[in-house]
Specification:
binds pyridoxal-5'-phosphate, 16 strands, transaminase activity, HTH_trans_reg/aminotransferase, about 450 residues, transcription regulation, DNA-binding, transferase
Length: about 450
């Protein structure tokens, strides 16, 4: 039985619970009957019920059956945006992760000790850094160990530390021509000149990077090799080697933002593997588990590690040991990896829905985002505005633009809409707006 199948079935059952078809305290149909209803097998239903029980959505009693638990044991009231259709936030599908994070936090809270409450030498406890090493290794990073890996509050925090350490005000930094707004905000805040490297469907191209180096002499290159935000581009291993070679040839620093590496179906070698002495590798649990954990992992060359650590200590002194203890628990039990796989499968399922509803056969998409091309920036803004009037939230492409001209796109994040039926509903509404754009006189 495929992993995806029982998760999808569990989600369908959950949607029926939310829509009131199976009210609180009601008994769910026996496996065989539910299997007929959802056109699957009783074994798949049994696995789906187990998953829902792990999440605290239902409770099973031997000989009596499976019952729906009260919703407020599970989930808070939906946010304002969730009452509409939120395609604007890049985060995992949190209802899937909540019960597992709760369980890990409860264990951490039960075992909380003085060592976790005090100031700790270096960046956090050894066991927490070992968990960080395991996380990054699972998704393709080689050479990490507790001496070269530091704990931060997320990739954004790591980027901020490294830009402050490796560059000065006014310096140029090479980034993808379309990048995520946090990167642009950081460049502006620190007074670094971001210069955009042109991209193709594999992300930044080595030719454009060489040109940017020749024209702007950046000190640092920042690259997102997997499921780049916003374009969804993923680099092949060959492209990773080529980018590493350009960085090495020009004796620059590489900052590898691997926030989405866990979305690759198989681990792919990090760019940093090819130039470990010139590269810092950044990842976090924000996109696989939850941004609220504030757990980032930073691997740096040994030649830099003391300086990065000094910056870290000047900046926050110590990243949250309690947060990292939770991360460590989730990684140690294997739940973190299972949840990451669940998010990857869900992203694939949601991509398939979006491709079908929006008719995207000819467009390259992947990961958490759709980077949807339109005729003009005017059209992109019109779409964002009209969608907002219907409580559909998305972002116009110019928010992601480093080097003009902006691409005429909007970005849809697929994972924060609360259910697949709602996702489909929101996409159908968007498609109607797109249809009216196709036949309207709005400048293209
Ligand atoms: C490419 C990329 N890097 C970094 C971040 C921030 O990650 P974190 O929450 O770990 O700071 C984001 C958030 O959207 C992102 O898209």
């Amino acid at each position: 039985m495929s992993e995806t199948k029982f998760r999808l079935i569990a989600r369908k059952i959950e949607e029926r619970i939310e829509q009131g078809e199976y009210p609180t305290h009601s008994k769910l149909p026996p496996h065989r009957i539910m299997a007929d209803v959802l056109e699957t097998t009783p074994t798949t239903i049994a696995k789906a019920y187990n998953l829902l029980a792990d999440k605290g959505r239902v409770e099973s009693f031997v000989g009596r059956g499976t019952f729906v638990k009260p919703a407020n044991d599970v989930d808070p009231a939906p946010s304002l945006a969730e009452q509409g259709f939120d395609f604007s936030i890049t985060q995992p599908y949190l209802p899937e992760n909540l019960p597992f994070i709760k369980k890990a936090m409860e264990k951490v809270s039960r075992n909380l000790n003085l060592q976790q409450l005090t100031y700790i030498e270096h960046s956090g406890l050894d066991a927490h850094r070992q968990a960080a090493v395991e996380w990054a290794k699972r998704y393709g990073l080689e050479g990490g160990n507790t001496d070269n890996t530091l704990l931060t509050h997320g990739v954004q925090h790591s980027l901020s530390l490294l830009l402050t350490l490796l560059t000065s005000e006014g310096d140029c930094v090479a980034v993808e021509a379309q990048t995520y707004p946090g990167m642009i905000a950081l460049g502006e805040l620190l007074g670094r000149r971001l210069v955009g490297v042109k991209m193709d469907e594999q992300g930044m191209t080595p030719q454009s990077l060489k040109q940017v180096i020749a024209e702007h002499a950046p000190k640092v290159v920042i690259a997102t090799p997997s499921f780049q935000n916003p374009t969804g581009a993923t680099m092949s291993v060959e492209r990773r080697q080529q980018i590493a070679q350009v960085v090495e040839d020009h004796q620059l620093w590489l900052i590898e933002d691997d926030a989405f590496g866990f979305l690759n179906p198989q681990p792919v070698a990090a760019i940093s593997n090819f130039i470990p002495q010139r590269a810092c590798h950044l990842t976090s649990l924000s996109k696989a588990l939850s941004p609220s954990l504030n757990c980032g992992f930073l691997k740096a060359p040994l030649s830099l590690i003391e300086k990065v650590n000094a910056h870290l200590r000047a900046n926050v002194y110590l990243s949250s040991s309690v947060g990292h203890a939770t991360a460590c628990e989730l990684i140690k039990t294997g739940d973190a990896f299972k949840l990451a796989s669940g998010q990857r499968e869900l992203a694939q399922a949601r991509q398939a829905i979006a491709r079908q509803v929006l008719n995207l056969a000819s467009i390259h998409t992947g990961g958490y985002h759709i980077w949807l091309p339109l005729g003009s920036q005017t059209q992109a803004h019109w779409l964002v505005e009209q969608a907002r009037k219907q409580n559909i939230y998305l972002r116009a492409g110019d928010q992601f633009t480093v080097s003009e001209p902006a691409q005429h796109c909007v970005r849809l994040s697929l994972m924060s809409v609360s259910s697949e039926s709602k996702l489909t509903q929101g996409l159908v509404m968007l498609n109607t707006l797109l249809d009216s754009l196709r036949t309207s006189a709005i400048a293209s």
